[in-house]
Amino acid sequence: MEIKKILTLILAASILWSCSNDDEMLDMKDDSVEIVQEIELVPKEDIDAIIIKSLQDNDEFKWSQLNDVQLWSALMHADSILTVGYKAEGESNINERITSINVEDPNWVKSRTDIVEETRFVLERKYQRSINKDDLERFSHDVLPFLEMKILDLEVISRLRSMENVRYIEPLSYEVNFQTYNEGQRYSDSGCSNEPNFNISGLYTTISPNAKMSWNYPQMGINQAWEYSTGAGITIGMIDTGVSPNQENLGGQFNSGFSQGRTVERRGTYQTGMWWWKEYDGPDDKCGHGTSMAGVATAPRGNDGNAVGVA
User: Which segments constitute the Peptidase S8/S53 domain (predicted)?
Assistant: First the structure.
């Protein structure tokens, strides 16, 4: 597949991205200066093929499998926001105790600061311009050890990968086009499939007043737990793709059959853009995944013949 060649011109007001004069990434004092960076950008189709082959062969994919140019290209095909997982000096087995780490501990703060400062050093040395730390670092999680930075430079990718306190680097918003490589196989596409449901006849039991109970509820003891509590007085919070306004059992029929005195509240907080053009996509489900998960959790034990949720 043909590899397209791009010519990245990094000018006064756009070395890393276009912003207002107050928010420019680099303080260019001479706007006649140009820094030309000629790099082979790997097409998105090629990156998708690598990811899908890894999933087919190994049932998993890790961004560490890509070389620097491939990873940088994936970053450019997305929104150029790089997620960087870090660790403090001397730490190991991070995944086994990820929730007990205090990222505000001085050793963890130092590791996070070193990563940002090293990125600044690479860019300032390369472009001979000062870089604002606050503009470089877009987000730093206050519980988990990762941060996000706006990165357009391949050399930064290479440098970060060589640092001992960097656990991983990944393009934040890269999405694989599974449809192009379907080849008769089904992929979940992040749970947002629009394909019809498969026939589930024989995989459920009809219970009163006229609801379907999944075959695995008894195996997990869910119907036995209903003898003690059905979730009265409990609030379930679900973070997902939203809930369809057309699903009556999660709307007007949420209180039906044996399920009474319940309420549903919807909030849309996902931002579809950045900075001044960001928009909230609202609480309405656009792909079905959130609606399905909400149904598994809270679908009413009604009399319309539909499946009942766990709670």
Answer: 231-311
User: 114: which 2 tokens?
Assistant: 């070193």
Counts of helices then strands in the chain (DSSP H, E): 8, 8
- Please check whether residues 117 and 215 belong to one and the same domain: no
Q: CB neighbours (10 Å) of residue 86?
A: 25
State the pLDDT at residue 112.
95
Question: Span 273-281, mean pLDDT?
Answer: 67
Q: 3-class DSSP state for residue 35?
A: strand
Give the DSSP letter string of 124-159.
Answer: HHHH-S-B-HHHHEEEE-SSSSEEEEE---HHHHHH
Tell me how many domains the chain contains.
2
Domain of residue 146 covers: 4-180
36 touches 27 (CB < 8 A): no
The H or E element spanning position 224 is: helix 222-225
Of the residues 180, 213, 234, the one at which a domain ends: 180
The string of pLDDT tens digits covering residues 225-261 is 999 988 888 899 999 989 999 999 999 999 999 999 9
* pLDDT confidence of residue 48: 94
171 upstream amide cis, omega within 30 of 0: no
pTM: 0.55
Using CA atoms, how far apart are residues 24 and 37, in angstroms rounded to an integer? 19
| Contact yes or no for 142/101 (Cβ under 8 A) | no
